[in-house]
Each structure stands twice: as structure tokens, then as C-alpha cells.
Amino acid sequence: MELREEIAATRAGTGDPAALLGEFRRTAMLVPTVTDDRLMSAHYGGIRWIFAFTDEAALARFAQERGEAPGTEWTYVSVLGARLLDAVVPALDGPTGVAVNAADQDGSMLFPPARGIVPDEAAVDGPAHRGEGGR
Fold first, then answer.
1. pLDDT of residue 122
2. I need a labelling partner for 133 at 20 to 30 A (CA). Which of 6, 39, 53, 61 fits?
3. What is the pTM of this model?
4. How far is 10 from 92, CA to CA, in rounded Å?
């Protein structure tokens, strides 16, 4: 299944979490950039969430939800989900996760900074956050 199908199955309660994570890791995500080519993110619940989208249509829905006029161009980079989880998240300060298709009420999914999703040193339930050293 492709990522959008895995998300739908998981949201319906019939998905396989390992398959969902595997598909996310293999999928090239579109991540909007802001000033100085930083990845667009927002803080919620003490976690920084990087916004990532499965396609340009999902990104356009997000832009429209944020009040952008239809047709407004956004800059973005294409990044494998695995690179977001394994390289980007650990390089940032503080707990960071990935929010996929954030404007799609029935098609969004969060990948939180938890062990088994991000490297242990970046996980809120990992050794660094339990006072056992690390970042």
C-alpha cells in the first residue's frame, strides 16, 4: 500500500503500525520551507512538528487552510521520511515529530518523537530525556 492508504487503514483501526512506519520511511515527502530554507514547523504540546505532505494537492490544502490565496506558490523540498526521522529530527533542539497532511481531517497522521519511530537519542521516551545522557 502507498502511504495515504496505510494512513487510512490505521485511522480505520485495521492498519499495521509497522507497515505504516515503513511506508512513511520509504516515501518522498514534500516539506515546505520558510526563511533561510528552514523546514516549516509549529510547536504544539511541547513538541515541534515538522509539516510534511504526500503530494502537492495536500500541500495546497494546507496553504489554503492557512489563509493563502489559491495558486500561491510555496517553496518546498522533497525529503524521504526516513531522512526526516533519522537525520533531521535528531539534529534539532528539543522534541520533534512529523505531522503528515495536516490539513486533511481524515488523512493526517502524526509521527511523534518516540522510540521505534525516531532514534533513541531524539525520543522523548529515550535515554537522553530520561537523564541517561545524550542530546
1. 94
2. 39
3. 0.90
4. 28
Count of other CB atoms within 10 angstroms of residue 78: 8
Report how far residue 82's alpha carbon sits from residue 13's, in angstroms, rounded to the nearest whole number.
24
Q: What are 41's strand-pairing partners?
A: 50
Going by their DSSP bridges, the two strands 96-100 and 47-52 should be labelled as: parallel
Counting other chains too, the contacts that 86-93 makes at CB distance below 8 Å and 24 or more residues apart are 86/118, 86/119, 88/39, 88/50, 89/50, 89/113, 89/118, 89/119, 89/122, 90/118, 90/119, 90/121, 90/122, 90/135, 92/48
Angular region, 124: left φ>0, alpha ψ -120 to 50, beta rest? alpha
Domain boundaries, the chain: 3-130
What's the pLDDT score for residue 129? 54
The type of residue at 53 is F
What pLDDT score does 135 carry? 45
CB atoms within 10 A of CB 9: 15
CA 22, 27, 29 angle in degrees (round to 5)? 130
> What's the average pLDDT block by block, 10 residues per block, for the chain (135 residues)?
95 96 98 93 96 96 90 92 97 96 95 96 76 49
